[in-house]
Amino acid sequence: MSGIIDMIKKFFVGSEEEMAEIKSKMKFLLGQSLNRQDVDEYAIVYGKTSKNANYIVSSTTTYYSYIVAFNKGTGEIIVVPTDYKLSSYGDPIFITNDSLKKAKLTMMGVVFSFDFKDKSSLEFEVPEINTKMVNMGGGYELAISQREEAKAFKQFFKNKYNC
């Protein structure tokens, strides 16, 4: 029975080898974005969000992917924009007490929301499982299984921001 479940899981999410490769790529890109080789002090999760824009005759959805690194010891959070194929990255966003106005969980505890003192904001969710099916409907998201990591980030966030 577990063989069938494993086959289904590989089809929808990916194999353990694929998950290890994805997590290794995220760690590599985090290091590249910080100009550091050693980023072992951070736990790393995949974050995502999408924005819808409705027009008179059409609508568009823009997808955003993030490498989210957090350090339980220091309380540091770093968010690195990336593409869903993990082939590129943007400038890291450092979430610090000095820059942060407010942090909260929204959408029934699923979306992590940050409001900054400079009036900018950032929102994303950290899915426990993101299947390959999301891209069959035209989405652009990373297929990943990160159940334990997502739970750890949520607990870290709740502890840090008292939510």
Identify the notable features of this structure and list them briefly:
163 residues, alpha+beta, three-stranded antiparallel beta sheet, 9 strands
Please describe the biggest sheet, giving its number of strands, its sense, and whether it closes into a barrel.
Answer: 4 strands, antiparallel
Percent helix: 25-40%
The total count of helices amounts to 3
How far apart the termini lie comes to 40 Å
Tell me the strand percentage band.
Answer: 25-35%
Side by side, the strands of the main sheet go: 1-2-3-4
* Rg over alpha carbons: 16 Å
Compute the number of strand runs: 9
Sequence of secondary-structure elements: HHEEEEEEEEEH
What would you call the shape?
globular
Uncertain runs with pLDDT below 50, 5 residues or more?
none
- Calculate the mean pLDDT score and round it: 88
**Structural class, from secondary structure content?**
alpha+beta
Task: Describe the structure concisely.
This protein has 163 residues and is α+β, with helices and mostly antiparallel strands. The protein is built from 3 helices and 9 strands.
Give a description of the structure.
The protein is α+β, with helices and mostly antiparallel strands and 163 residues long. The strands form 3 sheets. A 4-stranded antiparallel beta sheet has the order 1-2-3-4. Strands 5-6-7 form a 3-stranded antiparallel beta sheet, covered by helices on one side. Strands 8-9 form a two-stranded antiparallel ribbon. A hairpin with a 4-residue loop joins strand 6 and strand 7. The longest helix is centred in the first third of the chain and has 19 residues. It is globular. The N and C termini lie far apart (40 Å).
